[in-house]
Specification:
The complex is a heterodimer of chains A (about 260) and B (about 210).
Chain A (H helix, E strand, L loop, with lengths): L4 E9 L2 E6 L2 E7 H7 L2 H7 L2 E6 L7 H14 L4 E4 L5 H9 L4 E4 L6 H11 L4 E10 L2 E6 L4 E3 L3 H9 L5 E6 L25 E4 L5 H8 L6 E4 L9 H11 L9
Parallel strand pairs in A: 1-4, 1-12, 4-5, 5-6, 6-7, 7-10, 10-11, 11-12
Antiparallel strand pairs in A: 1-2, 2-3, 7-8, 8-9
Chain B lengths: L4 E5 L7 H9 L3 E5 L2 H4 L4 E4 L5 H10 L2 H11 L2 E5 L1 H5 L3 E2 L5 E2 L7 E4 L2 H4 L5 E9 L13 E7 L1 E3 L8 E6 L1 E9 L2 E4 L7 H14 L1
Parallel strand pairs in B: 1-2, 1-3, 3-4, 4-13, 5-7
Antiparallel strand pairs in B: 5-6, 7-10, 8-9, 8-11, 11-12, 12-13
The chains are: A alpha/beta (about 260), B alpha/beta (about 210).
Chain lengths: ~260, ~210
């Protein structure tokens, strides 16, 4: 049967990788730092997928970001998704041409024309719809543009629209839990309508392997993403994967 | 043999970079080409692809890549088809609108339905691939090895029983086949970590 997936998300801006906490970015280190602290062969040994996000806030930095995508795809033989600043089919093509397998779309998610163009070229399985949200006592508020612009739709309306968009997966990211390492907030899962039948990636809050195991046990969750660069430094990801498998979560096994 | 050149057929769809990197990693020469005269002279050609069947066939026909592919097969050279590439071998697909495929395999391509899979569509992620002993594509791998899938359509398994693999996504479907000099996988070996690299190496050792 299909395995659950552990995804490592990396935020990139101005040649550096960043840690996000409640969507405020903190610079961690450049590519050399990443290579020193995370052996790439170890990353691909421990996670099932990588998401690279271009979080540059001034200027789009498309070409610089494409270089990073290329670097990753040279050494990592697992799926790599790229997101951030996909405002046109040309940017989408550049990311794919650089080696991305899938595209994460947040700010332009409700741009139907753009989504159709991308889906017609690369297929709808190529599009991961990204939703960032605040939980105000189980009242969910959605945001775009790195959490800075509110989307005036409630959770029911959002999923109605998503059902009619050409997308392959969704990623739900809690702004409140983002980067806190305090564990996941699962309350939005109850709000996903039963009729919505796309794989769900869950993000925001993973601090240790126990959080990951707890989330993997939820039937609504197909994949978990962690973007916390500091929680799993060194062999942290590898150890987490071992523990997850030990807890009888079905993850892929490598030869 | 490792001193050979692998030609990746480029018709503008899908992620060719990772295939290039995977073969590069395995130490063979790799070239990417969209020219039918280059493609048809290849000893080892790869037909990749993700995305729309309809659009892919349109581009392939327009650029006479369809004939180049058929020539490769006729000459007895090797063709490896991945994901949409595997589906394109079929006679017909129902993606967007009914579209004729390359017709090299007489089977049809159909979308998974929720009713038959009881699972989310697309089928995305690592899933187990089951095969019979002696399938040379999987040499050194155990039946049940994980490979990465991302697709909503699949080739129907009619008249295929030898040298195939199956995968269970609520229903069992055809996840790969070997037929003469044609090798095809619905999954992405170039995205399946060490499992996929091993499979690609097996393929190179056959050629």
């Amino acid at each position: 049967m299909i395995r659950k997936r552990l995804i490592f998300t990396l935020l990139f801006q101005n040649d550096c990788f960043f840690l996000s906490r409640n969507f405020r970015l903190q610079k961690i280190g450049n590519y050399e730092w990443l290579k020193k602290n995370y052996d790439f062969s170890m990353i691909t040994d421990s996670v099932d997928e990588i998401i690279l996000l271009n979080v540059s806030r001034e200027g789009a930095e498309i070409d610089n970001f494409c270089k990073i995508i290329k670097t990753f795809t040279k050494e990592c033989f697992i799926p790599i998704s790229a997101g951030g600043k996909i405002s046109s089919i040309n940017v989408a093509k550049k990311y794919i041409r650089s080696g991305a397998d899938k595209l994460v779309i947040n700010s332009n998610l409700f741009n139907k024309v753009l989504l159709k163009k991308i889906a017609n070229t690369f297929g709808e399985q190529c599009i991961i719809a990204s939703l960032d949200y605040h939980n105000l006592e189980d009242n969910f508020l959605f945001y775009r543009n790195n959490g800075s612009k509110k989307i005036n739709l409630n959770v029911k309306e959002i999923f109605e629209i998503l059902s009619n968009l050409p997308i392959g997966e969704i990623i739900l990211n809690s702004i409140d839990m983002d980067g806190t390492s305090n564990g996941f907030d699962f309350s939005i899962l109850k709000k996903i309508p039963r009729s919505f039948q796309k794989p769900v990636i869950y993000a925001g809050g993973a601090g240790n392997y126990k959080h990951l195991v707890e989330a993997f046990r939820k039937k609504e969750i197909d994949s978990i993403s962690t973007a916390n660069l500091l929680n799993f430094v060194g062999d942290g990801l590898q150890e987490a994967r071992k523990q997850i498998i030990r807890n009888k979560i079905k993850l892929a096994r490598w030869n | 043999m490792k001193n050979r050149t692998v030609t990746i057929i480029d018709y503008g769809m899908g992620n060719i970079g990772s295939l290039f990197n995977a073969f590069n990693y395995l130490g063979v020469k790799v070239r990417i080409s969209s020219k039918p005269n280059v493609i048809e002279k290849s000893h080892i050609a790869i037909l990749p692809g993700v995305g729309s069947f309809h659009k892919a066939m349109k581009i392939i026909k327009k650029n006479s890549i369809d004939n180049a592919i058929k020539n490769i097969i006729q000459k007895g050279d090797y063709l490896f088809c991945i994901c949409l590439g595997m589906q394109l071998l079929a006679s017909k697909s129902f993606e967007e609108k009914p579209t004729k495929g390359l017709g090299i395999i007489s089977n049809k391509v159909k979308k998974f339905t929720l009713k038959e899979t009881k699972n989310k569509i697309p089928h995305v992620g690592f899933n187990q691939v089951f095969f019979d002993k002696g399938n040379k594509l999987f040499k050194g791998l155990q039946s049940g090895t994980d490979f990465y899938f991302v697709h909503s359509y699949r080739m129907l398994p009619e008249n295929m029983s030898k040298n195939i693999s199956k995968t269970d996504y609520g229903i069992k479907f055809l996840s790969s086949f070997v037929k003469d000099n044609i090798y095809a996988t619905q999954f992405h070996p170039e995205k399946s970590q060490s499992n996929g690299i091993k499979l690609l190496d097996n393929f190179l050792n056959i050629t």
